[in-house]
Amino acid sequence: MTFSTGFLADPQGTNSGELVGQNHIVLSAETFEDGLKVGRFAKLDTGSIDNFDGSATPVVAGVVKRYVYNSTEDAGLLDQDNHTFIEYIREGLVTVQVKSGDTPALFDRVFISNDGDANDGLATTSNAQVDANAEFIAEVSSDTWLIYITPAPGDVATHIADATAAHAASAISIADAGGFTSATEVEAALQEIYPFIPLEIADPGDAAAIPVTKSAVIAITTGAGGETNTLADPGELGIELTISHDVDGGGARVITAATAVNETGNNTITLDDPGETIVLRSVQVGGSNVWRVVVADGATLSTV
To answer: DSSP secondary-structure letter at 169?
Structure first.
């Protein structure tokens, strides 16, 4: 704790940037920003220990240490004229300034304010800010908290900094209280869901097979002559195909299914004019997956 005089009987409240306990990692640096703020988090910037300033992807150095004996900092700022080096706490129990209005609780995670304003470097509870890899321990005075800080291992730091691939979906469990999926993790659950979400699929063209493993919307374009497609039995139950005649080049597109697409026994669908549409859904008949017509708007059904 700091003292307003040299007498132990004249204590002043504990300030930020002070160590508590015995086990710490305190590092020093001769290169630092003039006006470095005591009791706030600092960053490593091109070999220099600097104040946070709103810059993107800062590297957290630690908490700037207060000199409790014969302190020479002016209003909490370390002046290069008065210091040849500074110290910062990389690991251990240390007091920090907390952003005004924040109300931390015991073991809340500590974040670092970094919006390019007067609050930069202050501890905050907002998880939209920079992760300090620290936790709040206790309030020691107004807007000053004791925290425990530890540097993140390299792989953890990289993981935290990864904005787009921090967690593989296969590594995230799913509770599924409603019993909607048999999967126990997100990746497998998505694989169950994807086939039933209609996707736009490009026209496979003349003499090609139409995809049958997932729901799809296909807009076809015909040429001047007759064209064909094949349609195998569906690979999943409950998927849906919507095939429309989009652009007419003068010819027709004849789609031949592997098995009948209705109770009548029709296995051939002809689309020869723009706007004609067929919607098919996969169902189970006699233990097998087959297509059944949901909508036939202008499409001609026949048997060959």
So the answer is: G
User: What are 229-251's pLDDT values in tens digits?
Assistant: 999 999 999 999 999 999 999 99
CB 200 within 8 A of CB 217: yes
CA-based R_g, the chain, Å: 34
Cβ–Cβ under 8 Å, residues 2 and 20: no
DSSP 164: S
Cα dihedral 234, 240, 243, 244 in deg (nearest 10): 170
Q: Where are the domains of the chain?
A: 19-161, 197-302
Domain 19-161 has CATH 2.40.300: yes
The pLDDT tens digits of the residues spanning 141-199 come to: 999 999 999 987 766 666 666 767 767 777 788 888 888 888 888 899 889 898 999 99
Distance CA 143, CA 15 (A): 10
CATH superfamily of 197-302: gp9 (2.60.120.640)
- Predicted confidence at residue 207, as pLDDT, reads 97
Task: Say whether pTM exceeds 0.70.
Answer: no
Separation of alpha carbons 297 and 45, rounded Å: 66
CA 211/CA 195 separation, integer angstroms? 11
d(CA 129, CA 108): 14
Q: What's the whole-number mean pLDDT along residues 266-284?
A: 98
CA dihedral (231, 237, 238, 239) positive or negative = negative
Average pLDDT over residues 55-65: 94
